[in-house]
Structure formats: structure tokens, C-alpha cells
């Protein structure tokens, strides 16, 4: 809740608390920034002090330069990776939510199929990939499938949990009012599952990027791929460490950005009603 | 004017109703009870006396193991409203949408429902809060929304399961007053589950006292004080006398429960 008017004079304790809060707000982004700057400075110094050649560990400004000079190549690859990431995330949402809804329509369906979803989840994707490589021809389809397998499980399991954790009394209320199966889903189960789904989505967002990169790594040598992972492999072969670092930084930044965007979406959707999105009062 | 204290025509008979759960707990045994039209009937008893189970049986949320419920008038689903112990609101939906819900589930559009919803919100003193979400409301206000929601279908029978138990006393008194006002105005029948002697005496014209283990009816008393009842009634000797009688009946019921009996 927003306090519109502050009292004219705060007692020392309250004033101290307000000061403390302001300080913490600034510190929460300033401190990580300072640590990061310090780390980059240290990295640079280590390179200089030890006279490390640039093909082993390039100095930060060289990486930044490469990011600029190789921009066309790197951002082109980033786009390829992003395409796989977002497509597989989209498919994970559709598949995860779809399956979760199916599961909650019947306990029997859930009991029958949920174990297999777990099997799919716990088998390392790297180990399945050779099979996918044999059965699927299209490069994009291959990567998508891999990335999807990695990303869909958190959405499925979280959404299933959410759809099943509806308040008992609310369930009775819908029954008393003669709600149809569809009405229960639309007006009760889906909204109740929203916070759980969004939690799963946040995890899946990161996983779909990891899935896209890992899949390309495994598929890498087969040629046509052109995402960031193949840039990294390629740069590794050529001892082009600056480009390797630049690609790595791009992947990290993408991951951070995906997380932030999904957190924002989650906050906007839940801020009015769900505990997780509420600011601490008092 | 309707005779508020007298008995209307029978609405529902519970005949030898018993309920035993699959875990062997006997929640109700041999309950015989007649609910008459226009009653404000309280089911008063200690926890575990099956009063909530009785309410769920009447609502049709569960079926009796033995005995039967005989309805004298066909009451469709539209004709019973239910108020739970907690407000049980949709936390993501506005106050308006929460009250609209029962109509919405019956296919009534927002526009068509608006007059009924607004009228009820006014009756429970929540005009102006249409767009608030439940977490922005106090406990008492949430319960008002819950009552408005139960009444929006204009039910003939309102079932209430300890609706005010979690509220502070001042809020509870206010809600008691408002509920009585609504009841006198809209002529529905109320079955009100409570464990508060004072609340049951203040509200009801009939109190059914229940005992536990197994849940059963142990007695019944009539509170033939005139309606409308207000703050003056709450401090009158008449009210105190009724409370004393109800307490004694409740004590008798609880003592009879302590004898070893089945479960």
C-alpha cells in the first residue's frame, strides 16, 4: 500500500528506519555493480601481471572490442539461438500446460503418464541426443526437440501442482453452483495455478536457453548450425579466445534478460493478489 | 406481516439421518429435524458434534449413510446459498466478480448481473469496493462479500457454517445485525452452524443443540423474543435468560457426550 502523506516529523527510530531502507535500496544494485567492476579490473590486472597471451585469457577490453568488431557475426548467431530458445519455450508452455490440464481432468491419466514425464526429465539430454540425431533430419527440429525436453518439465510439474492445489471450499462452491468441467477449469483451476505456472515458466526460460545451447553443442560438428554454441566451438578450435569470451558473455546476458523479463511478467500478473508479489508491509 | 417467530410450513425433514465416514468415524447418528420456511435455525454444539456435516448433507455436498432428507418443496440448485467458515473468495477476482460468480456459472452476463450484484453490495455496505480484490479488504468485509455472493441467486435457503467464528467481537456484532436485517427483508430460511451460545440466541428463533461422539441432536429450544433485535436486545435480561437456558442445554449435551459411547 502506498503511503500518500508522510507525517511531518518522524521520531528518531522511524527516521533511522527510513534511512536504512533507502540505503538498502541503493546498495542492492550498487554493491553487485561495484563487485563486478572490481572483478573486471582484477581480471585485467591478472592478465597484465602474468603476461598471459590473448589466446589463453584476453584482457577485458579486447573482449569488448571483439564484441564490437564481430558484432555482425555474433548477433546473427545470437538471433539463431534466441529463435530456438523462444520457440522451444513456447512449445514447452503449450505442451506443459496442455499435459497438466489433461492430467488434472482425470486422476487415472495422471497416474498413468506422470512417471514417464519424470523419466524424460531425469535422462540427460546429451545421452538422448544421438538418437534424435538419427531420427530427425531437420537441424532446427533437432535443436527444438532437445531444448523442449529440457524446458517443458518444470512447467508441467508446477502447473499440475497448481491445478491440484485449489481450495477445498472453493471447489465445493463451484459444485454447489453446478459448474461444468470447463467452468471449473476456466474460472477456478487455471487462475489458481497461475502463480505455480509462472514459477515454472521462470525456471523453464533459463532451461530452454541452456537446452538450445547444449543441443547445438552436441549437434555442433554436423555443420549447418550457426548459433552461439557453434561460434564458441569454432572459436575454441581456432584459439580465438576473445570471440569465445564475447559469445559467452552474450549467452549470459541473454539468460539474465530472459529471467528478468519473465520475473517482470510474473510480477505484473500477480501483483494485485498473490502473496509472492506483494511488497512487505510494516 | 410474516410471523417471524412462529413456524412456517415445513421445508425439509431430516429423518433418522446418519453419516459414517469411510474411516469409521460416525459423524451423525439418528438425526431427526424439521426445518420450516422462514426459520432462522441455529445448530449449536461443541466441535465434533457433526453440525458441519449436517449442513453439508443439507447442501447436497455429501449423502447420508442412513435415513433420508425429505424436501417438501422442490429446491433447485438456485435456491440454496452457502457461506463457508472462511470467506472463500477467488483471490484474483474483484469484489464484483466474486459476487457475480454464481450467476456467471449460470450463464448470466456481466451486464445482466450488474443490477443484482450492485444491489447486494449495497445491502452488505460494500458499495464503492466493487473493484477491490479480497486481500485489500478486512476480514469482516471479506465475509460480507461472501454473504452477498451466497444471496445473489436469491436463494430460499441460506446455509452458514460458522461464518463469523474467525472475526473479532465488534465486527461479529455488526455482521449479526446486518444478517438479521437481510433475513427479515428477504424472507429466506437460514440454517446457521455455530459454537457460540450468544450468537445463536441473538440470531435465531430456533436453536437445535447437538452433542458429540457420535454427533446427534440432544435438544431444541425456541427463542421467542421479538424481531427486529438490536443492541437493546443484546443487553436485555430477556436475552441473558435465553443465553442461560441455551448454556445449560449445551452443558447437558456435553455431559451426556462424556459417557463412553462407541468411538
Q: State the low-pLDDT regions of chain A, or none.
A: none
CATH class of the largest domain in chain A: Mainly Alpha
Q: Can you name the CATH architecture of the largest domain in chain A? A: Orthogonal Bundle
Helical percent range of chain B? Answer: 25-40%
CATH superfamily label of the largest domain in chain B: P-loop containing nucleotide triphosphate hydrolases
* Beta-strand residue fraction of chain B: 15-25%
- Estimated structural class of chain A: mainly alpha
Mean pLDDT over all positions of chain B: 88
Order of helices and strands of chain A: HHHHHHHHHH
DSSP E strands of chain B, number: 9
Total domain modules of chain B? 2
GO molecular function, one term (chain A): ATP binding
Keywords (chain A): ATP-binding, Cell membrane, Membrane, Nucleotide-binding, Transmembrane, Transmembrane helix, Transport
InterPro entries (chain A): MetI-like, MetI-like_sf
Pfam families (chain A): BPD_transp_1
Can you characterise this structure?
The complex is a heterodimer of chains A (282) and B (263). Chain A contains 10 helices and no strands. Chain A has 282 residues and is mainly alpha-helical. Chain A has 2 domains: 1-51; 60-277, MetI-like (MetI-like fold, Orthogonal Bundle), CATH 1.10.3720.10. In chain A, α9 packs antiparallel against α10 (241-270). Chain A is flat and about 75 Å long. The termini of chain A are close together. In chain A, 32% of the residues are buried. With 263 residues, chain B is an alpha/beta fold. Chain B folds into 2 domains: 34-75 and 156-263, 3-Layer(aba) Sandwich (Rossmann fold), CATH 3.40.50.300; 88-155. Helices cover 37% and strands 23% of the residues of chain B. Chain B has 8 helices and 9 strands. Chain B has helices at 51-59, 95-104, 110-123, 139-151, 169-186, 197-203, 231-234, 237-257, and strands at 10-20, 26-36, 40-44, 66-71, 80-83, 157-161, 189-194, 206-211, 216-222. Chain B has a 6-stranded mixed β-sheet with strand order 5-6-7-3-8-9, with helices on both faces. In chain B, α2 (95-104) packs parallel to α4 and α3 packs across α4 (139-151). The longest helix of chain B has 21 residues, at 237-257. Chain B starts with 9 loop residues before the first strand and ends in a 6-residue tail after the last helix. Mean pLDDT of chain B is 88; it is low at 1-5. Chains A and B meet through α7 and α8 of A and α2 of B. Chain A: Residues 78-266 form the ABC transmembrane type-1 domain. Chain A: Keywords: ATP-binding, Cell membrane, Membrane, Nucleotide-binding, Transmembrane, Transmembrane helix, Transport.
Amino acid at each position: 500500500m502506498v503511503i500518500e502523506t508522510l507525517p511531518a516529523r518522524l521520531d528518531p527510530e522511524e527516521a533511522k528506519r527510513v534511512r536504512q531502507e533507502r540505503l538498502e535500496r541503493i546498495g542492492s544494485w550498487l554493491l553487485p555493480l561495484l563487485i563486478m567492476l572490481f572483478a573486471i579490473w582484477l581480471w585485467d590486472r591478472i592478465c597484465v601481471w602474468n603476461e598471459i597471451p590473448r589466446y589463453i585469457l584476453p584482457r577485458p577490453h579486447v573482449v569488448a572490442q571483439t564484441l564490437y568488431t564481430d558484432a555482425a557475426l555474433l548477433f546473427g548467431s545470437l538471433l539463431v539461438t534466441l529463435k530456438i530458445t523462444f520457440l522451444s519455450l513456447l512449445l514447452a508452455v503449450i505442451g506443459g500446460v496442455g499435459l497438466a490440464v489433461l492430467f488434472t481432468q482425470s486422476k487415472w491419466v495422471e497416474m498413468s503418464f506422470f512417471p514417464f514425464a519424470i523419466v524424460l526429465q531425469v535422462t540427460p539430454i546429451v545421452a538422448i541426443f544421438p538418437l534424435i540425431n538419427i531420427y530427425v533430419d531437420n537441424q532446427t527440429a533437432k535443436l527444438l526437440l532437445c531444448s523442449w525436453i529440457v524446458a517443458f518439465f518444470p512447467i508441467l510439474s508446477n502447473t499440475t501442482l497448481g491445478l491440484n492445489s485449489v481450495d477445498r471450499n472453493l471447489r465445493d462452491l463451484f459444485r454447489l453452483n453446478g459448474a461444468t468441467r470447463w467452468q471449473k477449469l476456466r474460472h477456478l483451476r487455471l487462475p489458481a495455478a497461475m502463480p505455480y505456472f509462472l514459477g515454472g515458466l521462470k525456471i523453464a526460460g533459463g532451461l530452454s536457453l541452456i537446452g538450445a545451447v547444449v543441443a547445438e553443442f552436441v549437434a555442433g560438428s554436423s555443420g549447418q548450425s550457426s548459433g552461439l554454441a557453434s561460434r564458441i566451438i569454432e572459436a575454441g578450435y581456432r584459439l580465438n579466445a576473445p570471440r569465445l569470451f564475447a559469445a559467452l558473455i552474450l549467452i549470459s546476458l541473454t539468460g539474465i534478460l530472459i529471467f528478468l523479463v519473465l520475473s517482470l511478467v510474473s510480477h505484473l500478473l500477480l501483483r494485485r493478489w498473490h502473496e509472492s508479489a506483494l511488497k512487505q508491509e510494516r | 406481516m410474516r410471523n417471524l417467530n412462529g413456524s412456517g410450513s415445513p421445508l425439509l425433514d431430516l429423518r433418522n439421518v446418519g453419516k459414517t465416514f469411510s474411516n469409521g468415524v460416525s459423524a451423525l447418528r439418528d438425526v431427526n429435524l424439521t426445518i420450516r420456511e422462514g426459520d432462522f435455525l441455529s445448530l449449536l454444539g461443541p466441535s465434533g458434534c457433526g453440525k458441519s456435516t449436517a449442513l453439508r448433507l443439507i447442501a447436497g455436498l455429501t449423502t447420508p449413510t442412513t435415513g433420508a432428507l425429505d424436501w417438501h418443496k422442490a429446491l433447485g440448485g438456485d435456491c440454496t446459498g452457502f457461506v463457508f467458515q472462511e470467506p472463500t473468495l477467488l483471490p484474483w477476482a474483484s469484489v464484483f466478480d466474486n459476487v457475480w460468480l454464481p450467476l456467471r456459472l449460470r450463464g448470466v452476463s456481466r451486464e445482466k448481473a450488474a443490477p443484482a450484484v450492485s444491489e447486494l453490495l449495497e445491502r452488505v455496505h460494500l458499495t464503492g469496493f466493487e473493484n477491490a480484490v479480497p486481500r485489500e479488504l478486512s476480514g469482516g468485509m471479506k465475509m460480507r462479500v461472501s454473504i452477498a455472493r451466497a444471496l445473489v441467486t436469491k436463494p430460499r435457503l441460506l446455509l452458514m457454517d460458522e461464518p463469523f467464528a474467525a472475526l473479532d467481537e465488534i465486527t461479529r456484532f455488526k455482521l449479526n445485525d446486518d444478517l438479521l436485517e437481510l433475513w427479515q427483508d428477504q424472507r429466506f430460511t437460514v440454517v446457521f452452524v455455530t459454537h457460540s451460545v450468544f450468537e445463536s440466541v441473538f440470531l435465531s428463533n430456533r436453536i437445535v443443540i447437538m452433542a458429540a461422539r457420535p454427533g446427534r441432536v440432544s435438544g431444541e429450544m425456541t427463542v421467542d423474543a421479538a424481531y427486529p433485535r438490536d443492541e437493546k436486545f443484546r443487553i436485555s435480561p430477556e436475552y441473558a435468560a435465553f443465553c442461560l437456558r441455551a448454556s445449560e442445554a449445551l452443558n447437558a449435551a456435553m455431559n451426556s457426550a462424556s459417557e463412553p459411547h462407541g468411538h
